[in-house]
UniProtKB/TrEMBL annotation:
Pfam families hit by this protein: DUF3540 (PF12059)
Organism, scientific name: Acanthosepion pharaonis
Keywords in alphabetical order: Acyltransferase, Coiled coil, Transferase
GO MF term set: UDP-3-O-[(3R)-3-hydroxyacyl]-glucosamine N-acyltransferase activity
Origin: domain of life: Eukaryota
Protein's name in the database: LpxD
Amino acid sequence: MAITLLYLDKGIVADRVEVGAADKVEVGAADIVEVGSADIVEVGVADIVEVGAADIVEVGAADKVEVAADRVEVAADRVEVAADRVEAAADRVEAAADRIEVAADRIEVAADRLGLAADRVEAVADRVEAAADRVEAAADRVEAAADTFEVSTGMAVEEAMEDVAEEEADWTTTSHFFLKSEKLTPKFLFL
């Protein structure tokens, strides 16, 4: 495999140098591994772990506990607010129950009033019916009076006609007797 290598420490540039198994392994084992074992591991174990164990844990134990306490206090406040809301809801339910009870009382009073009104309507209906009966009875009386008047009138007319007939008979008899006794002419009778 042909690659281009740059040797900065020697100041030599070699183009298309054939790198084989020996070169690659040497570079890997010497340079890369050395840097990894010496620098990286050393920094990781010394600095990072030290900072983690000393600073971070120390800060975490103090601040995190304080933050946890604040969170617990906030949670307590939220629970208290929730309790207040529950209490307010209970008061609203109680107020609604009172309103329902008042409405039930009003409905009962209205039902009683309707019952009284129904009784009054029934009494008025009875009075109207009684008045209708009275009117009917009065109509019967008027009809009976009309019948009586008709009968009485008929009898009166008949009696009057009989009286007229009797008077006419008497007049005829009297006139005949007068003409015969006084010997008057019929002309005198018409004067």
